[in-house]
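Chapter summary example.
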Amino acid sequence: MRISNFSERESWIHALDPRLRLITAFVFTVFLAWASSPCILAGALLLSLFLMNCAKIRLVEIAGRLAMLNLLVVMLLGAGWLLSDQHAGDIALIIFFRANTMLLLLTSLAGTMDVVNMGHALAHLRIPSRLALLFLFTIRHIDLLHEEFQRLRDSMRIRAFRPGVNLHTYKSLASLLGTLLVRSILRAEAIHSAMRCRCFSGRFYLVRHFEFRRTDTFFSLGMILTLTLLFWGELSWPKH
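The structure predicted for these 240 residues follows.
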């Protein structure tokens, strides 16, 4: 079980302490949400590209995610022009840098992490165990729902279903969503029953403990220095 195949690769990013990666991703996400200088955000984008390269992830592998994200940015820009907002271009540029940097940063630091390790890291960081368990179950259930959706879609294709702008298509898609909802509920009940049979008590048991090594220290110092420079640059950048 994993978030993506990025977790199976080997790099010094993958070898970092999962707790450190989550903390770094959280801190930089907060900074990106606060920063508003395009040049500073552009610098953060370069940092995220550097981390992606270190994690051995190519841009072409996440091109679909980037395309969907930037399509939304283009739509926001178009809406601003329609409303004759003179600052629409600046706002769209800031949104572009923020969104893309967050996506690349989270992909590099969190997307390269196995789901189980992420759950353990959340528990080590004193995140409530129920939230950590809910996260693990949600990720797992999303994967099962995706497999179920693929089976239903293949079944419709075998029956020569061809989507179009007509009543038959709408009824078929509604039936697909309804069936997926019912099967997801049944699967959730089955999982709940299986967990009760195994005497699950709602507690997150930690069977692996992480170690903070020399590489983690160097990475921490580098990120602290980088964040300090970006923060100082944001404060000293002239505001219009």
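To summarize the output: The two ends are 48 Å apart (CA to CA).
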